[in-house]
Amino acid sequence: MAGSLVVAQFLVIWSVLGQFSEQTLAQNVQLRRDPLTVLRDGKIQAIHTAGEWPSRRASILQGMESAMGPFPPNSIRGDLRFKRLDTPVRVSRHTRQKVSFEPSPGTQVKAWLLVPHASESASQSKKYPAMLCLHQTIPIGKDEPAGLGPTLSKRQAFDLADRGFVCLAPDYPSFGEYPCDFKDTSWKSGTMLAIWNNSRAVDLLCSLPEVDPARVGAIGHSLGGHNTLFTAVFEPRIRVAVTSCGFTSFTRYMKGDLTGWTSNRYMPRISAVYAKDPARMPFDFPEVLAAIAPRAVFISAPTRDDNFDLQGVRDSVATAAGVFRLLGVPDRLQLRAPEGGHDFQEETRLEAYDYIAKVLAEQSANKVPDTRGK
Question: Looking at residue 41, what DSSP letter applies?
Protein backbone atom coordinates (compact mmCIF):
# COMPACT_ATOMS: atom_id res chain seq x y z
CA MET A 1 0.00 0.00 0.00
CA ALA A 2 2.81 2.41 0.93
CA GLY A 3 4.59 1.72 -2.34
CA SER A 4 1.43 2.38 -4.33
CA LEU A 5 0.94 5.66 -2.50
CA VAL A 6 4.48 6.78 -3.33
CA VAL A 7 3.92 5.92 -7.00
CA ALA A 8 0.64 7.82 -7.04
CA GLN A 9 2.23 10.85 -5.42
CA PHE A 10 5.08 10.76 -7.93
CA LEU A 11 2.62 10.69 -10.83
CA VAL A 12 0.77 13.70 -9.48
CA ILE A 13 4.04 15.60 -8.93
CA TRP A 14 5.22 14.65 -12.42
CA SER A 15 1.93 15.90 -13.83
CA VAL A 16 2.26 19.23 -12.08
CA LEU A 17 5.86 19.70 -13.21
CA GLY A 18 5.10 18.64 -16.78
CA GLN A 19 1.70 20.13 -17.43
CA PHE A 20 2.24 23.36 -15.52
CA SER A 21 5.93 24.04 -15.99
CA GLU A 22 5.03 26.98 -18.22
CA GLN A 23 1.69 27.93 -16.73
CA THR A 24 0.10 28.30 -13.34
CA LEU A 25 -2.89 26.30 -12.18
CA ALA A 26 -5.07 29.41 -12.50
CA GLN A 27 -3.88 29.90 -16.08
CA ASN A 28 -4.69 26.28 -16.89
CA VAL A 29 -8.24 26.75 -15.61
CA GLN A 30 -8.67 29.85 -17.76
CA LEU A 31 -7.36 28.09 -20.89
CA ARG A 32 -9.70 25.15 -20.33
CA ARG A 33 -12.70 27.46 -20.01
CA ASP A 34 -12.01 29.70 -23.00
CA PRO A 35 -10.81 28.27 -26.33
CA LEU A 36 -10.15 31.80 -27.59
CA THR A 37 -7.24 32.27 -25.22
CA VAL A 38 -3.60 31.21 -25.48
CA LEU A 39 -0.55 31.38 -23.26
CA ARG A 40 2.13 33.68 -24.70
CA ASP A 41 5.21 34.89 -22.86
CA GLY A 42 3.77 33.58 -19.62
CA LYS A 43 0.53 35.54 -19.99
CA ILE A 44 -3.01 34.62 -21.08
CA GLN A 45 -3.85 36.46 -24.30
CA ALA A 46 -6.94 36.51 -26.49
CA ILE A 47 -7.18 35.14 -30.03
CA HIS A 48 -8.62 37.71 -32.45
CA THR A 49 -8.15 36.20 -35.93
CA ALA A 50 -9.02 32.95 -37.69
CA GLY A 51 -5.36 32.62 -38.62
CA GLU A 52 -4.47 32.12 -34.96
CA TRP A 53 -6.96 29.28 -34.50
CA PRO A 54 -5.09 26.29 -36.06
CA SER A 55 -2.27 26.42 -33.52
CA ARG A 56 -4.75 26.75 -30.64
CA ARG A 57 -6.72 23.81 -32.02
CA ALA A 58 -3.53 21.75 -32.24
CA SER A 59 -2.89 22.45 -28.55
CA ILE A 60 -6.40 21.21 -27.72
CA LEU A 61 -5.76 17.92 -29.51
CA GLN A 62 -2.46 17.64 -27.68
CA GLY A 63 -4.26 18.15 -24.38
CA MET A 64 -6.85 15.49 -25.23
CA GLU A 65 -4.10 13.06 -26.18
CA SER A 66 -2.40 13.76 -22.84
CA ALA A 67 -5.44 12.25 -21.12
CA MET A 68 -6.45 9.69 -23.77
CA GLY A 69 -3.20 8.61 -25.35
CA PRO A 70 -2.09 9.38 -28.91
CA PHE A 71 -4.34 9.13 -31.94
CA PRO A 72 -2.62 6.64 -34.29
CA PRO A 73 -1.03 7.83 -37.55
CA ASN A 74 -2.72 7.18 -40.87
CA SER A 75 0.14 4.89 -41.85
CA ILE A 76 -1.30 2.05 -39.77
CA ARG A 77 -4.70 2.04 -41.52
CA GLY A 78 -4.66 -1.48 -42.91
CA ASP A 79 -7.20 -3.77 -44.53
CA LEU A 80 -10.52 -3.58 -42.71
CA ARG A 81 -11.34 -7.23 -43.53
CA PHE A 82 -14.97 -6.22 -43.90
CA LYS A 83 -17.41 -9.14 -43.71
CA ARG A 84 -21.16 -9.46 -44.01
CA LEU A 85 -22.08 -11.98 -41.33
CA ASP A 86 -25.69 -12.85 -42.02
CA THR A 87 -28.55 -12.45 -44.46
CA PRO A 88 -29.96 -8.93 -44.70
CA VAL A 89 -33.34 -8.45 -43.01
CA ARG A 90 -35.93 -6.01 -44.33
CA VAL A 91 -37.16 -3.81 -41.48
CA SER A 92 -39.56 -0.90 -41.88
CA ARG A 93 -38.06 1.23 -44.70
CA HIS A 94 -34.51 -0.18 -44.54
CA THR A 95 -32.44 -3.35 -44.53
CA ARG A 96 -30.45 -4.42 -41.47
CA GLN A 97 -27.40 -6.69 -41.64
CA LYS A 98 -24.74 -7.68 -39.12
CA VAL A 99 -21.22 -7.00 -40.33
CA SER A 100 -17.69 -7.03 -38.92
CA PHE A 101 -14.46 -5.15 -39.57
CA GLU A 102 -10.94 -5.04 -38.15
CA PRO A 103 -9.92 -1.52 -37.11
CA SER A 104 -6.55 -2.92 -36.01
CA PRO A 105 -4.94 -6.27 -36.86
CA GLY A 106 -6.53 -9.02 -34.80
CA THR A 107 -9.33 -6.82 -33.39
CA GLN A 108 -12.78 -7.60 -34.74
CA VAL A 109 -15.65 -5.18 -34.19
CA LYS A 110 -19.19 -6.22 -34.99
CA ALA A 111 -21.75 -3.69 -36.10
CA TRP A 112 -25.18 -3.32 -37.60
CA LEU A 113 -25.30 -1.89 -41.11
CA LEU A 114 -28.62 -0.32 -42.03
CA VAL A 115 -29.31 0.65 -45.65
CA PRO A 116 -32.44 2.48 -46.87
CA HIS A 117 -34.73 0.72 -49.31
CA ALA A 118 -34.20 2.21 -52.76
CA SER A 119 -37.30 3.78 -54.26
CA GLU A 120 -38.47 2.45 -57.60
CA SER A 121 -37.51 5.73 -59.26
CA ALA A 122 -34.04 5.86 -57.68
CA SER A 123 -30.97 5.35 -59.83
CA GLN A 124 -28.84 2.27 -59.18
CA SER A 125 -25.91 4.64 -58.63
CA LYS A 126 -27.71 6.71 -55.97
CA LYS A 127 -25.42 7.80 -53.14
CA TYR A 128 -26.81 8.20 -49.64
CA PRO A 129 -25.57 10.28 -46.72
CA ALA A 130 -24.24 8.16 -43.87
CA MET A 131 -24.31 8.26 -40.08
CA LEU A 132 -22.15 6.60 -37.47
CA CYS A 133 -24.57 5.76 -34.63
CA LEU A 134 -22.95 5.25 -31.22
CA HIS A 135 -24.71 3.55 -28.32
CA GLN A 136 -25.01 4.51 -24.68
CA THR A 137 -23.77 2.51 -21.66
CA ILE A 138 -25.92 -0.59 -22.11
CA PRO A 139 -24.98 -4.29 -22.22
CA ILE A 140 -26.59 -4.88 -25.63
CA GLY A 141 -24.38 -2.22 -27.21
CA LYS A 142 -25.01 -1.77 -30.92
CA ASP A 143 -28.42 -3.46 -30.77
CA GLU A 144 -30.05 -0.41 -29.19
CA PRO A 145 -29.41 2.20 -31.92
CA ALA A 146 -30.34 -0.44 -34.52
CA GLY A 147 -33.83 -0.64 -33.02
CA LEU A 148 -33.40 -3.90 -31.09
CA GLY A 149 -33.43 -2.32 -27.63
CA PRO A 150 -36.24 -1.56 -25.18
CA THR A 151 -36.68 2.18 -25.85
CA LEU A 152 -37.72 4.08 -28.96
CA SER A 153 -35.71 7.17 -27.98
CA LYS A 154 -32.35 5.42 -28.46
CA ARG A 155 -32.90 3.84 -31.89
CA GLN A 156 -31.10 6.54 -33.89
CA ALA A 157 -29.79 4.18 -36.58
CA PHE A 158 -33.26 2.74 -37.15
CA ASP A 159 -34.84 6.18 -37.42
CA LEU A 160 -32.16 7.66 -39.67
CA ALA A 161 -32.09 4.65 -42.01
CA ASP A 162 -35.84 5.10 -42.44
CA ARG A 163 -35.08 8.72 -43.36
CA GLY A 164 -32.62 7.80 -46.11
CA PHE A 165 -29.25 7.48 -44.35
CA VAL A 166 -26.88 4.53 -44.48
CA CYS A 167 -26.14 3.86 -40.80
CA LEU A 168 -23.40 1.91 -39.06
CA ALA A 169 -23.83 1.07 -35.35
CA PRO A 170 -20.70 -0.59 -33.87
CA ASP A 171 -20.08 -1.93 -30.38
CA TYR A 172 -17.99 0.14 -27.96
CA PRO A 173 -15.17 -1.90 -26.37
CA SER A 174 -16.58 -4.19 -23.62
CA PHE A 175 -20.21 -3.91 -24.77
CA GLY A 176 -22.34 -6.14 -26.97
CA GLU A 177 -20.19 -8.61 -28.87
CA TYR A 178 -16.92 -6.81 -28.20
CA PRO A 179 -15.10 -8.45 -25.26
CA CYS A 180 -12.31 -6.18 -24.05
CA ASP A 181 -10.28 -6.16 -20.83
CA PHE A 182 -8.34 -3.00 -21.78
CA LYS A 183 -5.01 -4.68 -21.04
CA ASP A 184 -3.46 -3.88 -24.42
CA THR A 185 -0.79 -1.37 -23.42
CA SER A 186 -0.67 0.13 -26.92
CA TRP A 187 -3.91 1.92 -25.95
CA LYS A 188 -3.69 4.34 -23.04
CA SER A 189 -7.47 4.58 -22.68
CA GLY A 190 -10.67 2.92 -23.75
CA THR A 191 -11.69 6.35 -25.02
CA MET A 192 -8.90 6.52 -27.60
CA LEU A 193 -9.43 2.88 -28.59
CA ALA A 194 -13.06 3.75 -29.33
CA ILE A 195 -12.10 6.90 -31.24
CA TRP A 196 -9.77 4.87 -33.46
CA ASN A 197 -12.39 2.16 -34.01
CA ASN A 198 -14.91 4.86 -34.95
CA SER A 199 -12.50 6.49 -37.38
CA ARG A 200 -12.03 3.11 -39.06
CA ALA A 201 -15.81 2.73 -39.10
CA VAL A 202 -15.90 5.96 -41.10
CA ASP A 203 -13.34 4.36 -43.45
CA LEU A 204 -15.81 1.51 -43.85
CA LEU A 205 -18.79 3.76 -44.50
CA CYS A 206 -16.87 5.78 -47.07
CA SER A 207 -15.84 2.58 -48.88
CA LEU A 208 -19.42 1.46 -49.47
CA PRO A 209 -20.64 2.08 -53.03
CA GLU A 210 -24.00 3.39 -51.82
CA VAL A 211 -22.45 6.06 -49.53
CA ASP A 212 -21.53 9.62 -50.47
CA PRO A 213 -18.25 10.11 -48.53
CA ALA A 214 -18.76 13.87 -48.52
CA ARG A 215 -21.89 13.50 -46.38
CA VAL A 216 -21.03 11.67 -43.17
CA GLY A 217 -22.08 12.47 -39.60
CA ALA A 218 -22.21 10.90 -36.14
CA ILE A 219 -24.81 10.74 -33.39
CA GLY A 220 -24.98 9.28 -29.91
CA HIS A 221 -26.60 9.41 -26.48
CA SER A 222 -24.76 9.54 -23.14
CA LEU A 223 -21.59 7.42 -23.66
CA GLY A 224 -22.42 7.66 -27.35
CA GLY A 225 -22.78 11.43 -26.97
CA HIS A 226 -19.26 12.14 -25.78
CA ASN A 227 -17.91 9.31 -27.94
CA THR A 228 -19.39 11.23 -30.88
CA LEU A 229 -17.73 14.50 -29.88
CA PHE A 230 -14.32 12.96 -29.18
CA THR A 231 -14.40 11.10 -32.50
CA ALA A 232 -15.43 14.22 -34.43
CA VAL A 233 -12.41 16.10 -33.06
CA PHE A 234 -9.99 13.55 -34.55
CA GLU A 235 -12.05 12.53 -37.60
CA PRO A 236 -12.63 15.49 -39.96
CA ARG A 237 -14.85 13.52 -42.35
CA ILE A 238 -17.61 13.79 -39.74
CA ARG A 239 -19.40 16.89 -40.96
CA VAL A 240 -22.09 17.00 -38.26
CA ALA A 241 -21.98 15.68 -34.69
CA VAL A 242 -25.11 15.20 -32.58
CA THR A 243 -24.71 14.60 -28.85
CA SER A 244 -27.54 13.85 -26.42
CA CYS A 245 -26.79 13.93 -22.68
CA GLY A 246 -23.13 13.51 -23.56
CA PHE A 247 -21.15 16.00 -21.48
CA THR A 248 -20.84 18.86 -19.08
CA SER A 249 -17.77 20.85 -18.10
CA PHE A 250 -15.43 18.90 -15.82
CA THR A 251 -15.90 21.48 -13.06
CA ARG A 252 -19.68 20.88 -13.13
CA TYR A 253 -19.51 17.09 -13.49
CA MET A 254 -20.65 15.50 -10.20
CA LYS A 255 -19.57 18.67 -8.34
CA GLY A 256 -16.02 18.26 -9.64
CA ASP A 257 -15.59 14.56 -8.77
CA LEU A 258 -14.20 13.05 -11.98
CA THR A 259 -14.21 9.43 -10.75
CA GLY A 260 -16.81 8.49 -13.36
CA TRP A 261 -14.33 9.33 -16.13
CA THR A 262 -11.42 7.29 -14.74
CA SER A 263 -12.12 3.60 -15.43
CA ASN A 264 -10.11 1.70 -18.04
CA ARG A 265 -13.18 1.92 -20.26
CA TYR A 266 -12.68 5.70 -20.35
CA MET A 267 -9.55 7.65 -19.31
CA PRO A 268 -7.58 6.18 -16.37
CA ARG A 269 -4.96 8.93 -16.69
CA ILE A 270 -7.53 11.37 -15.28
CA SER A 271 -6.92 9.64 -11.96
CA ALA A 272 -3.32 8.43 -12.31
CA VAL A 273 -1.86 11.63 -13.76
CA TYR A 274 -4.36 14.43 -13.09
CA ALA A 275 -5.57 13.32 -9.64
CA LYS A 276 -9.23 13.63 -10.71
CA ASP A 277 -8.88 17.39 -10.34
CA PRO A 278 -10.76 19.51 -12.93
CA ALA A 279 -8.23 22.32 -12.40
CA ARG A 280 -5.39 20.06 -13.58
CA MET A 281 -7.15 18.58 -16.61
CA PRO A 282 -5.36 19.11 -19.93
CA PHE A 283 -8.64 19.70 -21.80
CA ASP A 284 -12.31 20.44 -21.17
CA PHE A 285 -15.50 20.43 -23.18
CA PRO A 286 -15.49 24.08 -24.30
CA GLU A 287 -12.30 23.11 -26.16
CA VAL A 288 -13.75 19.85 -27.47
CA LEU A 289 -16.72 21.69 -29.00
CA ALA A 290 -14.47 24.41 -30.42
CA ALA A 291 -12.09 21.87 -31.97
CA ILE A 292 -14.94 20.53 -34.13
CA ALA A 293 -15.59 23.95 -35.71
CA PRO A 294 -16.30 24.92 -38.44
CA ARG A 295 -18.21 21.64 -38.74
CA ALA A 296 -21.67 21.41 -37.19
CA VAL A 297 -22.56 20.37 -33.63
CA PHE A 298 -26.09 19.81 -32.30
CA ILE A 299 -26.45 19.38 -28.53
CA SER A 300 -29.43 18.08 -26.58
CA ALA A 301 -29.00 18.78 -22.85
CA PRO A 302 -32.19 18.16 -20.86
CA THR A 303 -33.04 20.31 -17.89
CA ARG A 304 -32.99 17.46 -15.37
CA ASP A 305 -30.11 15.31 -16.59
CA ASP A 306 -28.65 13.86 -13.38
CA ASN A 307 -25.38 12.83 -15.10
CA PHE A 308 -24.41 15.96 -17.00
CA ASP A 309 -25.28 19.27 -15.39
CA LEU A 310 -27.05 21.65 -17.77
CA GLN A 311 -25.26 24.78 -16.54
CA GLY A 312 -21.91 23.19 -17.37
CA VAL A 313 -23.21 22.52 -20.89
CA ARG A 314 -24.39 26.10 -21.25
CA ASP A 315 -21.07 27.45 -19.99
CA SER A 316 -19.17 25.24 -22.46
CA VAL A 317 -21.34 26.31 -25.39
CA ALA A 318 -21.10 29.99 -24.46
CA THR A 319 -17.31 30.06 -24.74
CA ALA A 320 -17.01 27.60 -27.64
CA ALA A 321 -19.47 29.75 -29.60
CA GLY A 322 -16.78 32.40 -29.90
CA VAL A 323 -14.73 30.07 -32.09
CA PHE A 324 -17.69 29.33 -34.36
CA ARG A 325 -18.27 33.08 -34.73
CA LEU A 326 -14.58 33.68 -35.40
CA LEU A 327 -14.69 31.10 -38.22
CA GLY A 328 -17.86 32.62 -39.70
CA VAL A 329 -20.27 29.78 -38.85
CA PRO A 330 -22.21 30.88 -35.74
CA ASP A 331 -25.21 28.74 -36.68
CA ARG A 332 -23.14 25.55 -36.68
CA LEU A 333 -23.27 25.25 -32.87
CA GLN A 334 -26.79 24.47 -31.70
CA LEU A 335 -28.00 23.84 -28.12
CA ARG A 336 -31.42 22.62 -27.06
CA ALA A 337 -32.45 22.13 -23.42
CA PRO A 338 -35.70 20.15 -23.45
CA GLU A 339 -37.65 19.42 -20.29
CA GLY A 340 -36.81 16.01 -18.91
CA GLY A 341 -34.13 13.74 -17.55
CA HIS A 342 -31.30 11.65 -19.00
CA ASP A 343 -33.02 10.79 -22.29
CA PHE A 344 -33.22 11.91 -25.92
CA GLN A 345 -36.59 13.65 -25.88
CA GLU A 346 -38.74 13.17 -28.99
CA GLU A 347 -39.17 16.79 -30.11
CA THR A 348 -35.45 17.52 -29.85
CA ARG A 349 -34.54 14.18 -31.41
CA LEU A 350 -36.67 14.88 -34.45
CA GLU A 351 -35.20 18.38 -34.70
CA ALA A 352 -31.72 16.83 -34.60
CA TYR A 353 -32.60 14.51 -37.48
CA ASP A 354 -33.78 17.49 -39.54
CA TYR A 355 -30.61 19.39 -38.68
CA ILE A 356 -28.44 16.46 -39.80
CA ALA A 357 -30.30 16.32 -43.12
CA LYS A 358 -29.91 20.07 -43.63
CA VAL A 359 -26.19 20.14 -42.88
CA LEU A 360 -25.29 17.10 -44.97
CA ALA A 361 -27.38 18.34 -47.88
CA GLU A 362 -25.04 21.35 -48.05
CA GLN A 363 -21.86 19.28 -48.30
CA SER A 364 -19.86 18.54 -51.44
CA ALA A 365 -16.68 16.59 -51.99
CA ASN A 366 -14.47 19.67 -52.29
CA LYS A 367 -15.47 20.71 -48.76
CA VAL A 368 -14.09 17.63 -47.04
CA PRO A 369 -10.34 17.90 -46.47
CA ASP A 370 -8.78 14.68 -45.18
CA THR A 371 -6.60 15.90 -42.33
CA ARG A 372 -6.64 12.71 -40.25
CA GLY A 373 -3.66 12.46 -37.99
CA LYS A 374 -2.59 16.09 -38.60
Answer: T
